Amino acid sequence: MPGKFVVSLTFAKDNLDKATVAFVVANAALGSGQETVVFLTIEGVRLSIQGYTDGLQEEGFAPIQDLMTSFAGAGGQIYVCSPCFKKRKLDDTKLVAGAKVVGGAKLVEFMAGGCPSISF
Q1: For 73-116, what is each residue's pLDDT tens digit?
Q2: Where are the beta strands (DSSP E) in 10-60?
Q3: Domain range holding 32?
């Protein structure tokens, strides 16, 4: 049975370096056999909207859109903080693949048995 891993991300365009590295780490966790969740909060929730990442690329890395697509395609889950999402009046009909708007209880449920995490 694989372990679990959480990457918590609070940034988007406001710190593309951190946002990009978060998805690099998330992809590495998936690649090492971990059931992985990226938890988007605060400004990070904007990454969950289709089209937001178009053309965004941190120097020295793959485009963040490619990293996110690879993550979701490999079975990674993207949890989007519901209160943060609602505060920013975003459209939940335009979520990227692998993303779902959830409350904090869903993250707690995922992590409850013990789960390493990293925050960006």
Answers
A1: 999 999 999 999 999 999 999 999 999 999 999 999 999 989 99
A2: 35-40
A3: 4-119
Q: What is the domain count for the chain?
A: 1
CATH number at residue 106: 3.40.1260.10
C-beta atoms surrounding 109 within 10 Å: 11
Q: Which long-range contacts (CB under 8 A, 24 or more apart) does 22-25 make?
A: 22/118, 22/120, 23/64, 23/67, 23/68, 23/71, 24/61, 24/67, 25/118
pTM above 0.90, yes or no: yes
Q: Which residues contact 64 (CB under 8 A, 6 or more apart)?
A: 16, 19, 20, 23, 47, 53, 56, 57, 58
Amino acid at 72: A
Dihedral of the CA atoms 84, 47, 20, 118 (nearest 10)?
30
23 pLDDT higher than 90: yes
